[in-house]
Amino acid sequence: MASPLQFAYRTQKAIGVFDAAPVYEALPGFDKPEGTSRCCVYSPCSRYFAYATADGVVIVDASVGHVLTSLPIQSVYDLSFSPRGTFLSTWERPAKDENGDATKNLKIWRTIEDIEEGAEKQPLGKFVQKSASGWNLQYTDDERFCARIVTNEVQFYSTDDFSTVWNKLRAEGVADFAVAPGLNQNVAVFIPERKGQPAAVKVFNVPQFTTPISQKTFFKGDKVQLKWNALGTSLIVLAQTEVDKSNKSYYGETNMYLLSANGSFDARVTLDKEGPIHDVAWSPNSKEFGVVYGYMPAKTTIFNHRAVPTFSFPIGPRNTIIFSPTGRFVLVAGFGNLAGQIDVYDLEKDHRKVTTIESGNPSVCSWSPDSRYILTATTSPRLRVDNGIKLWHVGGGIMYNEEAFELYNVIWRPAPLDNVPAGDPLSPVPVPHASALAYLGTIKTPSKPAGAYRPPGARGTSTPLHFKREDEGGAAHIVTNGTPSIGPNGFGRQRRLIPGAEFTDPAVPGAAPTDGAVEGDENLSKTALKNKKKRGNKKAKDGETNNRGAGPDAGLAPPPRDFEGGSGGEGRSPERRGQQQQQQQQQQQHQPQHSRSQSRNNFPVRNRSNTHRARSQSRPGQRQGQQQQQNEPAQPFQQAGQGGAPLGPASDGGAQSANAKKIRSLQKKIRAIEDLEMRLAGGEKLEDTQMKKIGTKTSVIKELEALERE
């Protein structure tokens, strides 16, 4: 008898059946079909192996490889067996006949039957099935009934007669269903949201379809995955939306619910890490299940049949969980865009980690029926390079390696648990095949990783916590809807903003305050920032002019000149327009008889450098005072004409402004320290500099109180 460990593979030009450990050779009695191959599949009972080519469908004995029968159809693209291997379903591409009607492309065949010599095998039933997803019939465990979904109902057939509908489960808008395995003949149906009504999952007992025995309603469910445990007593509902309205995930929002088949329990599974649900799987013992969830690095947790968490594995970049057929081991891996690491845990040894396998970039990963080996394969069309099959021992060593050109699929031959040999899968460690030793010889010794670039000033120091992943000791990943998750001190969450309140200065606590710094300036362009400064300077200049006009000698000052008629200064900046206006006022007062031939050298010299312009914008009062000093020698009677009133600010204004700035700076420090104290109370790790800042709170408060008393 051939080894029970057997797998089949399909490449671009051939289909092969291979006996794995301990012989590692092709099945002797199987003749590889040449030419284009479309699909291949084992029966769940492990007795049959079927494959489809351009010439037809062939069914062989999986133990010896001899051909048992063939089907006269040439355009089959998918195959599937019933649970006990009695029936074979074939699916062809949808087409139309001469009258324009859709052909019946789903056909049901009896796997082995006695027919007269020379007669062709005929299908037991034919159906129209346009969709390639969920095309196959679903059977009860005893193969007495099978079901298929049509518009607004699930139709049940007796396997004795596929031409007549035996019973119907009417459900308006039903989108998916799943027949329970095991002895319980139950069926679960999913009805998505419709006309404001929530989505629902209902469980019925076959054939009592009038009242559901268990149900669960929920929102945010455009599509679901219905996962029964092996006994058919509990159902996991993984609901997903097409669009995440909070804009936190490109792939929509996911939620998970747990229902018992008898209606005694239904609840939403609560997860303690924010993010999508990557994978969920039942244990073969039907008493627990595992979930991989959360933003990367993800968290993996084992739940019991009442949705109570019992154990959590270390967080890491993982998105796949698979239990071994015996239920002793579980692998937690990261495939797809992740590094392909596989962690193997022993559930019977206090969830002890057995090994970590560096599998590369596989697209197929599955346990052997005896839970001793893990098969990984890189297949096309996901990756068209480095295609091949690798066989790993549960202890972590590689046992077999074979490269293939455009490998499309690899599947284990199923085996009942009764045929699995007894013993400890971890020991003794089997002898690897020669191909595994050759593969190990080609692997280069990994060099020390260079790591991320660090500027010279940061070299030789430890990485700050906010640059580390969560599994490396950093802060948890927080996804926001376009708002920064950094507070005023550079860490943690930003303080909530009150509608209508003034913006706070986002400067670093403890740093000297800057003049005119307003929150949001860093988001403006250079042109917008320049215009904003001009508008501020103009308002300040207008305010000073109004203050001078309100004095006791305001009647002696000349009226301002109106430039709306076109003075030639419309295109100038506010400072230059103000300067030109003041000079023209002086000319009108003191030199009314001068002609236009007067020399322009009487005007103050204008420095067009950026430095002088920036200084004049930031200090308009000082610039105005300097201008008056320059005009005094040329016009000594200006002060006398205006009553000798000084135009400078009050003498004590500078001291008050300095104290106000100090008070604001100290208040910012206190707010930053309070943020750090809240983060520390929440269990977050802080750096040494942040802890030192917390220790300075008492001195800062005393200094602030002293300034406020002054």
TrEMBL record:
GO cellular component terms, semicolon-separated: cytosolic small ribosomal subunit
Biased composition, class Basic residues, residue ranges: 529-538
Q: One Pfam family of this protein, by short name? A: eIF2A
Q: Which GO terms describe its biological process?
A: regulation of translation
Domain Translation initiation factor beta propellor-like per the UniProt entry, residue ranges: 216-410
Instruction: List the SUPFAM superfamilies hit by this protein, alphabetically.
Output: DPP6 N-terminal domain-like (SSF82171)
InterPro entries assigned: TIF2A (IPR011387), TIF_beta_prop-like (IPR013979), WD40/YVTN_repeat-like_dom_sf (IPR015943)
Function, in words = Functions in the early steps of protein synthesis of a small number of specific mRNAs. Acts by directing the binding of methionyl-tRNAi to 40S ribosomal subunits. In contrast to the eIF-2 complex, it binds methionyl-tRNAi to 40S subunits in a codon-dependent manner, whereas the eIF-2 complex binds methionyl-tRNAi to 40S subunits in a GTP-dependent manner.
Family of this protein = Belongs to the WD repeat EIF2A family.
| Official protein name in the record | Eukaryotic translation initiation factor 2A
